[in-house]
Amino acid sequence: MSVAPSDITHRTVWMLAGPIILSNISVPLVGAVDTAVVGHLPGPAAIGAVAVGALIFSFLYWGFSFLRMGTTGFIARAYGADDLSEQSRIIYRVFILALLCGGILAVLGRPVIYFALELIESSETVERLAAEYALIRIWSAPATLCVYVVTGILIGLQNTRSVFLLQLVLNITNVVLDIWFVTFLEFGVSGVAWATLIAEYLAALVGLWILRKPLILAIQNVALSEALSLKPMLELMQSNTHILVRTLCLVFSFAFFTAQGAKLGEIILAANAILLHLQSIMAYGLDGFAHAAEALTGSAYGAKNRNRFRQAVKITTLWAGLTAVLTGLIYMLFGEQILGLFSNQSMVLSAAITFLPWMIVSPLISVWSFQLDGVFIGTGHTRAMQNAMLISTGGFLLLVWLLLPTLGNHGLFLALSLFMCLRALTLWVYYPGILHHIPENSPGNT
Predict the structure, then answer these.
(1) Chain CA centroid to CA 257, Å
(2) Residue 445 three-state SS
(3) Do residues 254 and 334 touch, judged by C-beta distance below 8 A?
(4) Which of 283, 376, 292 is nearest to 10 (CA)?
């Protein structure tokens, strides 16, 4: 937990971003195995049930992603300032918050699950099996949120190799138990849920083991009353609330995109769903550099080192931009073949190919907002990030209203592309405010 190095190099960025990218690559594997094992059960209901259940938890846990992002920013700034006492206090607070949120979610999750199932119209069999899956998996909430916090701390401490290890433990355990419980023990849909639950708790324990030294320091040196002190807890909650609002706006925007696509017919809905998978794959790759930006800009901000801050922004954005260009080229050259992996239905594929050019340019459009998000999270300027997202979401709704009636699905994708541009532009307007908080004559700038 020593102070961060004074210079940021290309190697520094790749040492942070590389493990994150590798860990992200392993994430889709779990979903694929879930589908494969239940796909061999009698009837299609099991596949639908796991898909519905996984969708509920994706949205539910996405709403709690502020625990990961907010933690990274606070830890990175304390790390940059070489303030071990503040790191200990933050670690204590975020674990209390994660366990509190996870416990409440586990205990009160049943009505949330049934409400979500009511919103998702499905057959009686699918609904019953999805409820069976979800009512088991909800008990993993404390472990899941604990893993979020561990991940946030590790990124803030610039230890992304351990993040990769943690993700590997989680995903490999999940895959092995999936196959064992469903294929060999014939537990059915509940076996998939139990596999995820056990994997989450094992990952949480491994995460606690990785962080054992800072955790012991926090417990030994920080009194519970100090950790729960009102002012810093309110600051933590306020920052997390800003990130939560930003995340809900993002979730709403993509849900609104999907809902508007559904009005254009089943073929367009299916094609858009496949194309959004390409958007997700692209985001997985670029996330590595956004996370590196969180850690490095947060550390430089905490150290009040403007030169290091500018280095962090410049080098992480350079590599993110190059990766975006490479991703766009891959989609341009092999996009049709990639789409063929998602469906063999000719009408759906034909529609997806028609709108594929939007995904070819999407990495080049999206990368700037991803990187700026990382900078604002790392430096703790979460209110500005929230406000930028509120403005962008309002603009997106207006753009859909204007473009959809005349341009159809092309108008919908144009609105989404402009939404990404709006996110970057509004964040860029707030960006000078970050520099204003790092004095020119601060240590390390002379």
Answers:
(1) 19
(2) coil
(3) no
(4) 292
Res. 6: pLDDT tops 80: no
* Sign of the alpha-carbon dihedral angle for 204, 205, 209, 213: positive
For 21, 28, 135, 297, 335, the CA distances from 290, given in Å and listed in that order, are 10, 19, 34, 10, 24
Q: What is the DSSP letter of 263?
A: T
CA 29, CA 168: separation in Å to the nearest integer?
11
The candidate with the shortest Cα–Cα distance to 225, out of 323, 96, 48, is 96
Instruction: Convert the pLDDT of each residue in 61-87 to its tens digit.
Output: 888 988 999 999 999 999 999 999 899
Return left, alpha or beta for 82; rule: phi > 0 is left, psi -120 to 50 is alpha, else beta: left
pTM of the predicted protein model: 0.90
Mean predicted confidence (pLDDT) in 9-29: 88
Most confident of the following: 226-230, 285-289, 425-429, 440-444: 425-429
What is residue 1's predicted lDDT score, i.e. its pLDDT? Answer: 43
What is the longest distance spanned by two Cα atoms in the chain?
70
Helix axes 66-80, 356-379, angle to 10 degrees: 50
Closest CA to 67 of 45, 41, 91, 33: 91
The angle, 0 to 180 degrees and rounded to 10, between the axes of the packed helices 84-119 and 45-62 is 140
Burial class, 32, CB count within 10 angstroms (exposed 0-12 / middle 13-18 / buried 19+): exposed
- What is the b/e burial string over 77-101, where b = at least 16 CB atoms within 10 angstroms of the residue's CB? bbbbbeebebbbbbbbbbbbbbbeb
Return the pLDDT at 290. 96
Q: What are phi and psi of 442, to 5 degrees?
A: -75, 165
Q: What is the DSSP secondary-structure string of 339-407? A: HHHH---HHHHHHHHHTHHHHHHHHHHHHHHHHHHHHHHHHT-HHHHHHHHHHHHHHHHHHHHHHHHHH
Which range (120-124, 319-323, 430-434) has the least confidence? Answer: 120-124
Domain boundaries, the chain: 1-228, 231-446
Q: Which of 305, 383, 302 is nearest to 73 (CA)?
A: 302
Distance between CA atoms of residues 389 and 143, nearest Å: 29
Distance CA 126, CA 48 (A): 6
Structure confidence at residue 32 (pLDDT): 66
Q: Please determine, for residue 248, whether its predicted confidence score (pLDDT) is greater than 80.
A: yes
Q: How far apart are CA 309 and CA 285, in angstroms?
A: 23
Over residues 340-355, the mean pLDDT reads 86
Which tokens belong to 365?
Answer: 């459009």
From residue 37, alpha-carbon distances to 54, 132, 184, 274 in Å are 15, 17, 10, 21
